[in-house]
Design a protein that fits this description.
single chain, alpha+beta, Portal_HK97, Phage portal protein, Phage/GTA_portal
Length: 434
């Protein structure tokens, strides 16, 4: 029976109870790379500064438009994908979709306050920013999963027992304060890991790349606030008193500072001269630096630049390939981990060999009707599915006679080919005609 079965006693008792093992646990040290800071450091500093002088954390990094765009892109595309529960047919020939299985009902409504899109979007965001995502499994009296509660990484500590079992120290209003859960009651999604227990936060692994992106973005804002080009010194022929110098500086800033005053013509009198000492945006290669940093951050998340509207190198000929690479490299690895964790933690042991969970990537083509229709026509004409199967996938009603499979008339089974000595077999002449 699960450790959280006491939270939901409405389920009918079942004889299929898988006991949990309790062992003494040793607290695993906080990891900076995972985005978890010791409490004294978080309270005192809030974050570790990068070489740019800006504090970089998984939360401050969202100030970078590229980081926000990549995290949001993955979260939204991930949350679009429905998860289907399938049972293997007798003999292992194909799978049937299950709609009434307890796992299918759980995935359609993981908890009382989140629909699947909201649930998986939050899970994806935690994984992208922190390198770890935690989902507590609430079980019924028979050990069956009744609800899934996603927990912020800030509320979870990973514990490692001397014999290698993982435990999770959780504090959450719906779970309890200071509750320790066995690894069988937790779906723990890990990013790239150095120790196999905690995932590595891409933000904390590459703070300089993120810090430079934040710094260039802030530099651009400051540049325009100060009027972009007016950065220099005023020289007077006579010595100015401190009061006079302050008054002159304030007057200059109010008259010529800011974006609205950028194009004004400066009028100098009483021997004043202006000497420019600041760099222009071209001299500092500001735009090039911003572009390169955005590409670096896209590389961290394996998101093509065009997905966050960086279209400098986007062409019709390469966007399709980049979209496929995005699915293969950015979406498929974490979703494959979800599928395996669902089979391992949410199914009983006797069901794992015949039931599986699979994400339907066809949902990514939902807005591209032409591609869906072209693929459906090819599948129906090639005998991969019948017309009614395709119509049901498209949300259309089946029609009489649509259950028949079609095959191309210009092809046939290899077993139906004439034998070499069959007179009906057409062979090429032995010699070439003159």
């Amino acid at each position: 029976m699960g450790l959280l079965s006491f939270l939901d006693n409405r389920g009918a008792p079942s004889v299929r109870v898988e006991p949990k093992v309790s062992m003494p646990a040793v607290v695993k040290a906080d990891s900076f790379a995972s985005g978890s800071y010791p409490s004294w450091l978080s309270a005192g500093l809030g974050a570790l500064p990068s070489a740019t002088g800006l504090p970089v954390t998984p939360f401050t990094a969202l100030q970078s438009a590229a980081v926000f765009g990549c995290v949001r892109c993955i979260a939204e595309d991930w949350s679009k994908l429905p998860i289907k529960v399938q049972r293997m047919r007798p003999g292992g020939r194909g799978f049937d979709v299950l709609h009434d299985h307890y796992l299918a009902r759980l995935l359609r409504r993981p908890n009382r306050w989140q629909v699947p899109v909201q649930f998986w979007s939050f899970v994806s965001t935690c994984l992208s920013l922190r390198g770890n995502a935690y989902i507590v499994i609430i079980r019924g009296n028979g050990g069956e999963p009744k609800a899934l509660v996603p927990i912020s990484p800030d509320r979870v500590s990973v514990l490692l027992s001397p014999k290698g079992w993982l435990f999770y120290h959780v504090s959450h209003p719906l779970i309890g304060e200071g509750l320790t859960l066995h690894q069988d009651d937790m779906l723990h999604l890990r990013g790239f890991s150095l120790d196999g227990y905690l995932g590595l936060s891409p933000i904390m692994a590459c703070p300089e790349a993120v810090g430079l992106a934040m710094a260039t973005q802030r530099h651009g804002a400051t540049l325009f606030r100060q009027g972009a080009q007016i950065q220099g010194v005023l020289k007077a022929a006579a010595k100015l008193s401190p009061e006079g110098a302050a008054r002159l500086a304030n007057s200059w800033r109010e008259t010529y500072g800011g974006v609205d005053n950028t194009a004004k013509t400066a009028v100098l009198e009483e021997g004043l001269t202006y000497e420019k000492i600041g760099m222009t945006s071209q001299e500092s290669q500001f735009l090039e630096v911003r572009e390169h940093q955005d590409i670096d951050i896209c590389g961290l998340y394996r998101v093509p630049p065009h997905k966050i509207m960086r279209l400098g190198d986007a062409h019709y000929s390469n966007i399709e390939n980049q979209n496929q690479e995005y699915i293969d490299n950015a979406l498929l690895p974490p979703i494959r981990q979800v599928e395996e964790l669902i089979s391992d933690k949410l199914l009983f042991s006797e069901e794992r060999d015949v039931i599986r969970a699979r994400c339907d990537f066809n949902e990514l083509l939902r807005g591209d009707r032409k591609s869906r229709v072209d693929a459906g026509v090819a599948a129906v004409n090639g005998g991969l599915q019948n017309a009614n199967e395709w119509r049901i996938d498209e949300g259309l009603n089946p029609y009489p006679g649509g259950d028949e499979y079609r095959v191309p008339l210009n092809t046939g089974a290899a077993s139906s080919a004439p034998a070499p000595d069959d007179p009906a077999r057409v062979t090429a002449p032995a010699t070439s005609p003159a």
